[in-house]
Amino acid sequence: MTYLARTREGSEEISISFLKKHSATKISSPQPGVILFTNKTIPEHSTFQYVYEFIKEIKTLEEAKKIDYSKIKAPFRVKCRKKKGGDLSTLDIERDLGEHIHETHSKEVNLTKPKTTVIVEMIKDKIYICQTAEDKKISQKEYRVKTNPNSLTADLANTLLIAIDYKPSQAILDPFCGTGEILIEASLQKGKKIYGLDSNEFNIKKAKFNAKVAGVKLDLSKADVDWLDTKFKEGEINHIVTSLPTPNKFLKSRDILTNYKDLFNQAKFILKKTGTLTLITTKPQLLEEIPLEGFKEDKKYIISSGDVKHTLIIYKK
Description:
By secondary structure, the protein is an alpha/beta fold. The chain is built from 7 helices and 14 strands. Strands 2-3-1-4-7-6-5 form a 7-stranded mixed beta sheet. Strands 10-9-8-11-12-14-13 form a 7-stranded mixed beta sheet, with helices on both faces. The two termini are 42 Å apart.
């Protein structure tokens, strides 16, 4: 089966490495944010937002009517995804192609409970026709009940874990765990040595609640980052992975920078010699204001989330 996956622009390299480890073949990225691959199944815990069964790439919407839809399961509906603009609205495109499939192949239409959704994915100058039995955003996990502005989606959390080649036997720590997405995703991958800290008690409560909904248990503590060397032995942790806090009305820039400095200082002690310190942030310029003594930048990715740019940096000792 050939699939089309939508991933965040900038994470294609990470997505491709993930697919290779799951025996996928014929992997390509025809344009930013799009991955085509062949596999027996869709791998779990991925970097993807959507995954569809791929039918065909076309150049014009009229070409969509030349495709044979006779084998799709009815009832069906058509769903178009594109950015605003152009001569036709998404509704116009859905109606036009839906009427064609209905009249040409005598397929019943059901807009609320279809067995098949025909996807018209329009990205810049390319059009992809796909189908899916369940049209949902796989990155929107049900456990994400309690969130805050710094919370990550499941696909971003998995992007971090895949980037560091996380293995369930390894010890992982999120020192600014927030509402727990990174740790929950690690636990869903059968990880056992999973630790989270946050100085905000409300975040710890939210993370515990989300973990309960996800059906996993996390080792969470309310503590500041400068206490890490009292909680972990020297060289105990394989990976420190976190979404860095940024200044807000409760946290001033100077406090944030102090937290960053403390994190790097503590990481030198608790990380194994081969360990990684992986950070994702929307304010990478703040990292330029602190010394990275004892660490060097290994990899860097700029990942788009709509109009927001996330910078993912992996440091090694």
